[in-house]
Design a protein that fits this description.
The protein is of the alpha/beta class and 406 residues long. The chain contains 15 helices and 14 strands. Helix content is 41%, strand content 16%. The chain is globular.
Length: 406
C-alpha cells in the first residue's frame, strides 16, 4: 500500500500532539435543531446523545443563521443563479450579489471600499500578500489570531521585519515602533479587535495615540489593521464592534460573516486603492472560487438586519444576557476577565478541573469549550462561554445553575 509509510509517520506525529496536549478532541456531530419554545431558546441534538443541548460555544452572537429573512435570501439567490459561481472572480465569476455585499460591507464599516473572501482567515492572508514587501515592517500583538501569524509567514516576512508587543501593552507597542529599523518604508500595526480566548479588546484609541507620532516617519506610511472578526456585530453602541466601542476607527478592518452575522465568508475594508491592490495581488482572492451567491445574499440580509431597529433589539438582548451571565458567575465566586463582549471566560487555572467542568456542563445539557496550554498560557486554563442573542433569560439561568452544582 503506497500510503503505508506516510500513514505510520502521521500516526506518530498525531500521537506527539496528544502527548503535548495539543490534539483536538473527537468532533461532536450535530444531528438536530429544535427551535425556541416559550421561555426556552433553541436546542441542539448530538449524535449518540439523548440530551437536548444549550449551545454556549457558538460564535453566532446575533443568532441570525436561522432568521427566516436570511434563509429566504439565500434560497432566492440560489434559485436565481445556482449553487456555485463556476469560475474565479476575474474570469466572469463575479455576480451582482458579490458586488452588493462588498458595497454593504463598506457602508457598514464606514470605509470607502471592501473585498470579500471565503473566510476572514483567507482575508488576512490576502491582505498580507497585497500590502507586504521587502521594506514593510509588521508590528503585532502577542495574542494575535493564528491567521495573522500565518499571514506574515505566507507573505514571507523575515524575522528582522517584524516585532511583537506584549498583549495590549501600549508601552511595549511604543518600544516596537521606536525600534523600527532604518530603511523600512512601510509599517503595518496589526491586532485583533476582540481576543477570542479572553473576550478583551484592543485599546484602539491608545493604539492610535501611540502610532500618531510615527505616521510621517515612513515614505509609504504607517497603517493600523484590526481583525475584528469576533467584535463586529457583537458589541458596541450600534454593533460596529471594537471601532464602535472605542470610538476610534482603524485604517483597515478585517472581519467575518461567520460569527455575529451567522453566515460564511470574510472581508477586508479600507480604501479603494487597497481593495484594487487586493484584487490584483492577493492569491487567496485571485485563484479560488468566491463565495456562492447564496452566502452573499444571506450575508447582505444579515448586515441589513443588524443595521436596523431589529438588529439593535437583538444587540440589546445580547448585552442583557451577557451581563446576566457575567454577574451570575461573579456571584458564584468564579474568576473572569471583565469586558462587555459576549465571550465570557471562566478562569479555572487547572487543567484537570477544566476538563471535569466541561464534562459536567455536557452531562447537564450545556455545550462549552475548555482551553488549556498551549492554546492559553500555563496556569490560565479556561472555560470559554459564548452568549448568543437566541439565549433566553431562562437559558442563562439554567447554565448558571449547572455551574453552581459543580
Amino acid at each position: 500500500m503506497t500510503l503505508e509509510k506516510l500513514n505510520q509517520a502521521l500516526v506518530t506525529e498525531v500521537e506527539q500532539l496528544k502527548d503535548e496536549g495539543r490534539a483536538k478532541a473527537p468532533e461532536r456531530i450535530i444531528v438536530g435543531y429544535e427551535p425556541p419554545q416559550g421561555t426556552r431558546g433553541p436546542r441542539y441534538r448530538l449524535k449518540d446523545s439523548d440530551l437536548a443541548f444549550i449551545r454556549m460555544n457558538s460564535n453566532s452572537y446575533l443568532s441570525l443563521s436561522h432568521h427566516p429573512a436570511v434563509m429566504q435570501a439565500a434560497d432566492q439567490a440560489t434559485h436565481d443563479f445556482g449553487v456555485g459561481p463556476g469560475a474565479v472572480r476575474f474570469i466572469d465569476g463575479t455576480f451582482s450579489h458579490h458586488v452588493e455585499l462588498e458595497e454593504r460591507v463598506a457602508a457598514f464599516t464606514g470605509k470607502e471600499s471592501a473585498k470579500i473572501f471565503n473566510s476572514a482567515y483567507t482575508a488576512n492572508l490576502g491582505l498580507s500578500l497585497a500590502v507586504s514587501g521587502p521594506k514593510t515592517y509588521w508590528v503585532g500583538d502577542a495574542l494575535n489570531h493564528n491567521s495573522i501569524i500565518r499571514a506574515m509567514r505566507i507573505a514571507g516576512v523575515p524575522r528582522e521585519n517584524k516585532a511583537i508587543y506584549a498583549h495590549n501593552d501600549m508601552d511595549d507597542l511604543q518600544r516596537c515602533l521606536e525600534g523600527v529599523p532604518k530603511g523600512m518604508e512601510r509599517v503595518v500595526v496589526i491586532f485583533d479587535g476582540i481576543f477570542s480566548m479572553r473576550g478583551d479588546n484592543a485599546p484602539l484609541g491608545e493604539i492610535h495615540r501611540r502610532c500618531k507620532p510615527h505616521r510621517d516617519r515612513f515614505p509609504m506610511g504607517l497603517v493600523t489593521v484590526v481583525d475584528d472578526s469576533h467584535g463586529i456585530g457583537a458589541y458596541g453602541a450600534i454593533g460596529r464592534g471594537t471601532e464602535d466601542y472605542c470610538s476610534q476607527p482603524a485604517d483597515i478592518t478585517v472581519g467575518t460573516f461567520g460569527k455575529a452575522f451567522g453566515v460564511n465568508g470574510g472581508f477586508v475594508a479600507g480604501s479603494a486603492e487597497l481593495t484594487e491592490a487586493i484584487r490584483q495581488k492577493a492569491d487567496t482572492y485571485i485563484y479560488t472560487n468566491p463565495l456562492s451567491v447564496a452566502d452573499c445574499a444571506a450575508a447582505s440580509k444579515a448586515l441589513e438586519i443588524t443595521d436596523s431597529p431589529e438588529g439593535l433589539n437583538l444587540l440589546t438582548h445580547l448585552k442583557a444576557r451577557t451581563a446576566q451571565f457575567r454577574q451570575g458567575i461573579t456571584d458564584l465566586g468564579w474568576e473572569t476577565i471583565d469586558g462587555p463582549h459576549p465571550v465570557v471566560p471562566l478562569l479555572v487555572r487547572d487543567t484537570e478541573r477544566t476538563k471535569s467542568l466541561v464534562r459536567h456542563f455536557f452531562d447537564n445539557g450545556v455545550l462549552v469549550v475548555g482551553l488549556a496550554f498551549p492554546v492559553v498560557p500555563k496556569g490560565d486554563d479556561t472555560i470559554r462561554v459564548q452568549i448568543n442573542a437566541a439565549h433566553t433569560e431562562a437559558d442563562v439561568e439554567e447554565a448558571l445553575k449547572v455551574l453552581s452544582r459543580f
